[in-house]
Amino acid sequence: MDRSIDFHALCALYSVTDIALITPLREGMNLISYEFLACQDAKRGVLILSEFAGAAQSLGAGAILVNPWNIPEVAASIYHALNMSTEEREKRYLHNFLHVTNYTAQVWAETLLSALNDTVVEAQLRIRQLPPPLPVEEAIERYVKSSNRLLILGFNATLTDRVDTLNGCQGNQIREMDLKLHPDLKETLTRLCGDPKTTIILLSGSGRAILDENFGEYNMWLAAENGMFLRSTKGDWMMTMPEHLNMYWVDSIKHVFAYFTERTPQSYIEIRETSLIWNYKYADVEFGRLQARDMLQYLWTGSISNASVDVVHGDCTVEVRPFGVTKGLTIGRILGEINNCKSISAPINYVLCIGHSLGKDEDIYTIFEPEFPSRDISIPRLILSDITNPFGRSGSQKHTHELDLENKQNNNNDNDINNVVENGNRQSSPFLSKLTWNLLDLERDNYFSCAVGKTRTKAHYLLPTSDDVVSLLKGLALAS
Asked: Pfam families, alphabetically (predicted)?
């Protein structure tokens, strides 16, 4: 006869029970099996669970799964549970107990909200209007007229030679794994780097050795691994990563990536100092997507469930990196270091940002993009105190696809912005003058953000291939 039991009495009953027999014929969600495991710290009782129960998917490894229609099987399972060795009972209990304590309702809620947030971001990207092609002549004309310029360039698929061909010939994968600077850019980069009015930052996800090999001979700034490492080609590498950065998750991720590489032909792993990337660009498209989906589920429910990392799913890549590392966040730190080195002697009044970035890294296009009040008014927007430490945020949030830098800056500095622009005229701001000189003096028409080979982007403009980037840079070099 069914009847209600007081909660404390129910917990006591759970704790002294040898076997919990839970055999529904159809069930979606029931917490009895979880409650039983939570109360079995001393007894180490055995859970016999119907394979049709919702909990069978999560507790099946430690429980004895049965078909409730098969009465002899259920009877045999009860007998086995009563005569089970202490060692086996211990192993089964610990396996399920860890699952119950780690994957709580709070974790489930956070994962669900994070997935919903991802869906919103992806929907916004799908409906975003396609940006127009970069107005090359206008970009060159304004470059020439400006007095202090900043060029932020990506590397892979931006300054590299094209590896994709119309017939998809073999060998492209090997070429892409060994990144090389576009051969037509060497003389152009030498000219641009020799211009005292131009500062060039090569901001890439690639490692330090690759950037040294390709750009060590030019006078520019190199930012490796999305800005985690920085150096002027005249100096040594410095670390811009946060203090006490914990990389304990690397080994477990390597094992996961190795497993999926073995089962996905033509996929490969890129191992960097602060991140790991699994690339399946040259694998079978549909099979690669299925494997990537399985990998993401495995990562979030296992290897990195409690790690402070971001998992970034690109076009054909899965990247695991420390939490909060994006190109937009690290560019502030980079400019702060350049300012400290006195490499920039006057405010920058022209910015050209070109790259082929992952969706998470596209904040690089918006950090220089203020809401200008008019076409003819310039605002010093980049305030070093707000961005010198891009890792000030802490926590273990996952799937952080939208970085609300501008809202944070606007909330903190509304009064200062109002002081800077008043009645259409530039005014001095005590807050800004107390910090440092204005690093940017940028007008709307002197900022060009451009994505290479991507249509869903936050950039204002598009260029189809790296060959078009080469033509643009040649035009800048000749015009200057």
From this structure: Glyco_transf_20, Trehalose_PPase
HSE at residue 339, side-chain half, CA atoms within 13 A, is 21
Task: Evaluate whether 72 touches 87 at the Cβ level (below 8 Å).
Answer: no
Nearest to 230, CA basis, from 256, 204, 254: 204
Q: State the residue for tokens 């001095």.
A: 428
Amino acid present at 445: D
How many Cα atoms occupy the beta-carbon half-sphere of 36 within 13 Å?
22
CB 49 within 8 A of CB 74: no
Q: Is 250 exposed, middle or buried (0-12, 13-18, 19+ CB in 10 A)?
A: middle
The one-letter amino acid at 360: K
What distance in Å separates the CA atoms of residue 77 and residue 64, rounded to the nearest whole number? 7
Quick one: which of 456, 459, 449 has its CA closest to 152? 449
Is 36 within 8 Å of 60 (Cβ atoms)? no
Average pLDDT over residues 87-99: 85
pTM for the structure as a whole: 0.60
User: Which tens digits make up the pLDDT trace of 194-227?
Assistant: 999 999 999 998 889 999 999 999 999 999 988 8
Q: What is the pLDDT of residues 409-434, one digit of tens each?
A: 333 333 333 333 333 333 333 322 33
Structure tokens at 137: 């002549």
Convert the chain into a string of H (helix), E (strand) and C (coil).
CCCCCCHHHHHHHHHHCCEEEECCCCCCCCCHHHHHHHCCCCCCCEEEEECCCCCHHHHCCCCEEECCCCHHHHHHHHHHHHCCCHHHHHHHHHHHHHHHHHCCHHHHHHHHHHHHHHHHHHHHHHHCCCCCECCHHHHHHHHHHCCCEEEEECCCCCCECCCCCCCCCCCHHHHHHCCCECHHHHHHHHHHHCCCCEEEEEECCCCHHHHHHHHCCCCCEEEEHHHCEEEECCCCCEECCCCCCCCCCHHHHHHHHHHHHHCCCCCEEEECCCCEEEECCCCCHHHHHHHHHHHHHHHHHHHCCCCCEEEEECCCEEEEEECCCCHHHHHHHHHHHHHHCCCCCCCECEEEEEECCCHHHHHHHCCCCCCCCCCCCCECCCCHHHHCCCCCCCCCCCCCCCCCHHHHHHHHHHHHHHHHEECCEECCCHHHHHHCCCCECECHHHEEEEEECCCCCCCCEEECCHHHHHHHHHHHHHHC
C-alpha closest to that of 418 among 431, 402, 404:
431
Contact 96, 62 (CB under 8 A): yes
Are the C-beta atoms of residues 326 and 226 closer than 8 Å to each other?
yes
**What is the C-alpha to C-alpha distance for residues 246 and 29, in angstroms, rounded to an integer?**
37
CA atoms within 13 A on the CB side of 56: 20
**Residue bearing tokens 């409650």:** 35
